[in-house]
Amino acid sequence: MLLKRIIVCLDVRDGRTTKGVKFRENVDIGDPVAMARHYYDQGVDELVFYDITASAEKRNIMIDVVSRVAEQIFIPFSVGGGIGTVEQMRQVLSAGAEKISVNSQAVNNPGIIEEGASLFGSQCIVLGMDVYKTAAMPSGYGVMINGGRTPTDLDALAWAKQAEKLGAGEIVLNSIDADGTREGYDITVTRMISLGTGIPVVASGGAGKTEHLAEVLKEGRADAALIASMVHMQGFTIPGIKQTLREMKVPVRL
Length: 254
Prior knowledge:
It is built from 10 helices and 12 strands. The chain is α/β, with parallel strands linked by helices. The longest helix is centred in the first third of the chain and has 11 residues, at about 30-40. The chain starts with a strand and ends in a 7-residue tail after the last helix.
């Protein structure tokens, strides 16, 4: 049985880690470099770094912060935010990231997925999806871009399948409705995307207790669970979460 991964997300704005609820009311919670090192020392499997305003502000990602984080950790490290060209991808990889996350830029130019996968390999290209419930879409879920600010005409399941065909090697699936609520992941959309595609799916948005991770990793069929508030603000630790998951018969890395 494949081991499930625990991933910590660092949302970064103006060089500082921030956290909000449903992409709103963000508060400053610390230095991303120090926080990355802290979670690495605790034994997290991977880290995700999102420059959350890069797309909306139409600017390049903060390469200096990416580089300083990469110097402190020796685990897979995914970076996203405003990356829209292969040259920007190359810069991020050169700064020490192992994976590039494309979200808004991929919606605007799907070819960037294919181009990135061709040059750097599918294992490097992660599709970030911010989804929300809507009866207007065949799957019941639509896609938003620009940090959850702008709705699109994309159906979530159709977009996930298209991205897989274009060469994306992984999907980070974030529920806008559940984000920051600490009431649990959206199991329905996670399971739908996990079963509807053949690439790993990382569940994101809504974790408030370890039982939520167990639920999305088992019932939601996710390959990994992304967390933020639990460890940033609620006092949970990576070793504690992993121990509880093992007790709940969820196969996780030591």
